[in-house]
Amino acid sequence: MSARRRVGVLVSGRGSNLQALIDAAQMPNYPAEIVLVISNVPEVQGLIRAEQAGIPTRTINHRDYPSRETFEAALNDALKQSRVELLCNAGFMRLLTESFVSCWLDRHLNIHPSLLPAFKGLDTHARVLAAGARITGCTVHFVRAAMDDGPIIAQAAVPVLTGDTEAILAARVLTAEHRLYPHALRLVASGEAQVRGEFVDGMPKGPAEPALFSPPLRGSS
Ligand code: GRF
């Protein structure tokens, strides 16, 4: 196998998506390795997960810096020192400047718990329920300066079910996130998915079966 791509992961909390990436990167033939985990919040579970996996960690607390630019310069220094090639946001809760985003253009991934471009932003699952949507899901995309915006790499559809609360729906979507993120990173790290303008190549070639109908299809179909 050719050299694995060196990946840095940015977290702010629980780090369950980070864990999914750590687990995937331990599989033989996975085209990426996680070489650094950075948290902007001290002592979060994401840092503990990385330490337990023997991955170097850094805490770069945005509160210790006078501006976004100086905070991001510290991020970039750490990423450079670890020779990071691809960057993954995994529950990273800071908005990044255009300058940082352009520095990592098309090498920087994010996961969002909706089928983008629907339901960008926070409180996603509450808004999905309030809208009466029947299908939601999750998206991994390349990062652009606008929040939850950018070329879509991969998506998974998840049904909204009778009786769902925000917590129940979040848990169902999270299970899909943990499968989707390693899949999307594999596509990018292996070179299978490449950005062309504002779209990503590497769409599946037919047959064009819908991934999920909600309510389910009945009868002969
Ligand atoms: C996930 O739902 C992710 O999609 C969103 O923030 C949450 C982070 O969860 N961006 P975790 O820290 O990966 O457990």
Describe what you observe in this structure.
The strands form two sheets. The protein has a seven-stranded mixed beta sheet with strand order 3-2-1-4-5-6-7, sandwiched between helices. Strands 8-9 form a two-stranded antiparallel sheet. The longest helix is centred in the last third of the chain and has 24 residues. It is globular. The mean pLDDT is 94. The chain has 221 residues and is α/β, with parallel strands linked by helices. 34% of the residues are buried. It has one domain: Formyl transferase, N-terminal domain (Rossmann fold, 3-Layer(aba) Sandwich). It has six helices and nine strands. Helix 1 packs parallel to helix 6. Bound molecules: 5-O-phosphono-beta-D-ribofuranosylamine (GRF). The site of 5-O-phosphono-beta-D-ribofuranosylamine has 12 residues, from helix 1, strand 5 and helix 6.
CATH superfamily: Formyl transferase, N-terminal domain
What share of the residues lie within helices? 25-40%
Under CATH, the topology is which? Rossmann fold
- Indicate the proportion of strand residues: 15-25%
CATH architectural label: 3-Layer(aba) Sandwich
Unreliable runs = none
Give every kind of bound small molecule, once each.
Answer: 5-O-phosphono-beta-D-ribofuranosylamine
Number of strands: 9
- Report the sheet with the most strands, covering strand number, pairing sense and barrel closure: 7 strands, mixed
CA-CA gap between termini: 42 Å
Order of helices and strands: EHEHEHEHEHEEHEE
